[in-house]
Each structure stands twice: as structure tokens, then as C-alpha cells.
Amino acid sequence: MRYRARPPVDCPGGGTPPRGGEVRSSVARNRSTTAWVVAGVLAAVVVVASLVVIVVSLRSEPPTTAVPPTSDTTSTTTTVTPTTGGFDDSTTTVPPEVDEREVTLQHGGRDRTYLLVTPRDVPDGERLPVVVVLHGMGVHARATSKSAEWHRSVEEERFVAAFPQGIGDSWNMGPCCPPANLVDIDDFGFLDAVLDDLVRRDDVDPQRVYMTGFSNGGVMTYAYACRRTERLAAIGPMAGSNLDGCAPSEPLSLLHQHSDSDPVVPYHGGLAIGRIVSSKDFPDVPSSVGRWAERSGCETTPVRRAGVSEVEHIEWPGCDGDVRVELVRVPGRAHNWLKKGDYDPLDELLRFFDIA
After folding, report:
1. pLDDT surpassing 80 at residue 51
2. Is residue 205 situated within a structural domain?
3. Which terminus of the chain has a lower count of CB atoms within 10 Å, N or C?
């Protein structure tokens, strides 16, 4: 049986009517778009609600100990709690030649802590470099200590590693990041107290104090280095940003490691997922590092070289004194620990700090 085609149907405004499949496809697309919008709104609501709960609890939380009202509320007394060994991650263990302990400081009317990892049996008179490692937003200090082979490196390269713990797993450097910045936590003062505690140790070289951090920790590393330049020998932020465009008070060595496909802290700056936790847009990373190099007396034209696993190294030569400024671009790693193929960011960091 043969069917005769239906005559064309006039449409308002001219044209031909959409076919049934096109209508269904359009409806599906609209539904899909609506679903994504609704999901995004719900996710934002959940994030905001969670932050509100945390902020309210922090504001209502009484001081853990009674601290006399003085201009300096940091106690010089520390409490050291040795760990019982091992981590929750069964693939990561504490090497037998490494000690790990939690140190408690009183600062701002609160108990603040940092995880301390040291080689065991350091001979009297031996002074070791120390690396202060700042966790990212939403990541605990202990988890950060497991993000790479920190314990193995402490054992093999003989240095001290300290992992301070932020309030609500965050750091307050002003524009970023909640909940610490929403309740105005004095994290600069806390990190001062951590460094004071470290340099008092007999096994630490006070002239070789380094700082690194991931994401929010990287942002805080930049901010602390600008305000306390004289306390640090070099910094090595990863997947972070010099959010307020600050400069060190004197030339300071910088190694910045970043993925070129980071959606949270974009390599080329601008709006991003991370904008929900920052009141400022992130700057373009190469330009930002270039300005740091310029302020450190380096040449304005960087030298580029290819590394392993498609990793690109960008260096600004001719800096003042023995200062070095380097940027490592890691392709395709998003907002993650930047290990890629044969490239290990921890090895690169320790090389830059002249530890490995």
C-alpha cells in the first residue's frame, strides 16, 4: 500500500514544522540543561549551608583552654602526642627510621596542631632543613602527609616535615578561603607559632625553613611569604595562586607547579569553580610568576625547556643573588597532585629546596 505525503503545514512566522524527532531532541536538550542548572544550584546550596553550619559552630565554640588576655595569645608550651603507627591508608606506612607525632599549640584561645615527621636518631649537633606543608581546602593535614612519599623522603633525604592543621580544613589569607576567612582565623599568627616552635628544636636549621602548599595551601604559602619573607628560604606552592598579587619584601626563590587543565585554580586565571570560595579572581599563573621574578631582579624573558612526560619547565634567569624563580607546567592533571608519568612533583620540590 502506498501512502500519499501530507501537504505542508503552515507555521506561524513561516518555515516548516519541526519533525517529531527534532521536537523530542529539543525537549531532551532543554530537560538536560534544566537538570544541570538545578544540580548546580542544589550543589551551591549544599556548599553554602555546610559553610554556614561550620561558621556558626566555630563562632559559638568556646576556647579549649583559658588563655590570659594578652597581646600575644600563643603559648610557648607544646604538647606532643606520638602516633600509634600506620595510617588509615593501608598502602602507606611510617618507615621504621622515621618518627611521627602530633604537636599541640595554644593560639588565639584554641588548641592548634601540626603533624611533625622527623628522621629517627638525629645525632647531637646535626641541623636539618624543614619543609612546612599546607593542606588544601577540605583536606586534613594527615591526609596531606599521605598525598606523596613524604615519610620515605624524610628518611632518605634527612629533613623535617611539618603539616599544620587549618580550622575547618582551610586557611584564611583574606579573600580565601572558607570557613577560616569567614570567622577571621589568625592563620598568619598560627603559622608564626609553628615556625617558632620548629626553629627552637635542636635538630632544625633556622636558616633553611621552606614552605609549600596545595590549592588553598598554595594561596596561603604566597600570602605568608609576602608578609614573612625573612622567615623563609624559599617557597614551592602547587595548584595555588598569588591571589592578592603580593610581593616579597626581598627577593625570594619560588617554584610554582601547576596543571594547565586545572578547573579550580585555572592556569590562565579568571573565573573558575574556585570562585565560590574566593572573593577575587585568580590571576594568570605565568604572568603572576613573571611578576614575582621581576620583583626578584630576574630577567623578564624566561627560558623554556622540555622535561619528562611532556612537562614544561620555565625559568627566569639572572635573579638577584642566588634566588631562583621557576614555573613547571604539567599537562592534563586537572586539580590533583601533579605526579605524571616519570615526573614526581615532590622530587622536583626537594631538588629546588636543595634537599635532594
Report:
1. no
2. yes
3. N
Residues 14-44: tens digit of each pLDDT: 444 444 444 444 444 444 333 333 333 333 3
pLDDT tens-place string over residues 307-332: 999 999 999 999 999 999 999 999 99
CATH code, domain carrying 245: 3.40.50.1820
Statement to judge: residues 80 and 34 lie in one domain: no
First-to-final CA distance of the chain: 84
- State how far the Cα of 63 lies from the Cα of 45, in Å rounded to an integer: 30
My answer on whether 57 and 74 are in the same domain is no
Instruction: Please tell me whether residues 44 and 85 are part of one structural domain.
Output: no
Q: Which helix (H) or strand (E) holds 100?
A: strand 98-107
**Rounded to the nearest 5°, which phi and psi values hold at 215?**
60, -115
**Residue 196: how many CB atoms within 10 A of its CB?**
13
- pTM beyond 0.90: the answer is no
Q: Which pLDDT belongs to residue 92?
A: 55
How far from 351 is each of 157, 236, 255, 348, CA to CA, in Å? 10, 11, 10, 5
- Could you tell me if 130 and 160 are in contact, meaning their C-beta atoms sit under 8 angstroms apart? yes
What pLDDT was estimated at residue 280?
86
Domain count, the chain: 2
Q: Is 208 inside any structural domain? A: yes
Q: How many residues are given for the chain?
A: 356
CA distance readout (Å), 267 to 48, 259, 328: 26, 7, 11
